[in-house]
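Handoff note, outgoing to incoming analyst
You'll be picking up this chain. Sequence as last confirmed:
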Amino acid sequence: MGGVAVDDGAPGVKAPDGGWGWAVLAGCFVITGFSYAFPKAVSVFFKELIREFGVGYSDTAWISSILLAMLYGTGPLCSVLVNRFGCRPVMMVGGLFASLGMILASFSTSIIHIYLTTGVITGLGLSLNFQPSLIMLNRYFSEKRPLANGLSAAGSPVALCCLSPLGQVLQYQYGWRGGFLILGGLLLNCCVCGALMKPLVAPMTKDLGDKGIEKKKVKPKLLDFSVFKDGGFVIYTVAASIMVLGLFVPPVFVVSYAKELGNEDTKSALLLTILGFIDMFARPTCGVIAGLKWVRPRCVYFLSFAMLFNGTADLIGSQSKDYASLVVFCIFFGISYGMVGALQFEVLMTIVGTEKFSSAIGLVLLMEAIAVLVGPPGAGRLLDATKNYMYVFLLAGCEVVLSAVVLATCNFLFIKKKPSAPADKLESITLTDDCNTKMCSNRAEGNDDEEKGEREEQEKMIKEEENKDNEGIDDVRPKSVTVDSQEVERFLKEPQPNGNMAASPETSL
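Most recent structure output, in case you need it:
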């Protein structure tokens, strides 16, 4: 059996839901960790950069902002490259860019060089890894996709717990330049993860008969804007953009909030560790729940519940007056934050399907990039104006709650219930198989009819020749001679002297 490697998510290729898919999941776990945790881990070096280049904290904060902007804002470009070249080549080139940016940053002589190398080049490289890894995960998993998304999303808190302490050790041992150089080498593992993204193999169509059946392959669009015709996608994009305005605000300000209440630096920083630890287990657990038969058809509403849970936690956490209440807030925020992280791309995959997901995720990330650049800085300005963290958390909670209401209400009012994607695929495959079977049977019936007609013609010709022979014998045979049928049968059954049976009554007479 021959096969052709495809990387366009052809509908004829069934998701294996295992096998090599677990290797793909491992690669997605690492890529997700680098993509989300690296912008936060780089902040460990900010004090050294401030001392080296004589700049302020706001100047160094732009490094993480540019990284996130590149990660989200280059989504459409990444979609075009994936649809043109496939996931594996794009990811391996992206790994080289991510590593090259950090290596070049170690030779920087100004903060502008850090913006261009760590911010732009490394950010672009992480983007070229993050989006294709989600696309491949969607192609390799169908029935187990919620669990796969949950496990993949768990890479973010795990990497954050590892990269931040590692960055502190590297800064202490080798300085910021040596630390950047080593992190650049560490990012080369993105190339290894990209090599794991093996395209799915579809069986070739066999020729049936002389003509065969030719399978037409439709060339995918580089960026499919038809997803905006889908009402579910538009609702999701609007809700996700509103959510991102407030989703990332509490992790940015919770440590400063604790310090404002009079807690020590070490004790305040422990809050992020608690949040990350809870988030680490919440994501795969939520993936398991989302895969249940009763929950999966309603995963959009499950995501709405997670967003509502997250926004409510922000609203209640805004009233915290001591360290214990902040710990409780971080526990509930970590649970809801993990739920949102595990469900957001699972819901998008369910809405648009495998074929359009590569374009849909790029457009969604572009819209979220605008919100990412507006949300935390806007909260910072509100803090400067009010000097009160309560209003910052109240604003973030209201934004996330509003996004949950928009997603749930609009889907309930405007979206009709559609059959699940896996069922549609199975049905299309079954219909295709039935059509092929009918074509084969019709072809076989046609061949049988032709052979039957040839046999009838041959039998007809033989009968005509026998009739002619009989007419000649009747002419020679005297009319007075009569033949008794019983005597003929007896004669045929009796053995002849040569041991053979008579061939026909006419020759024996």
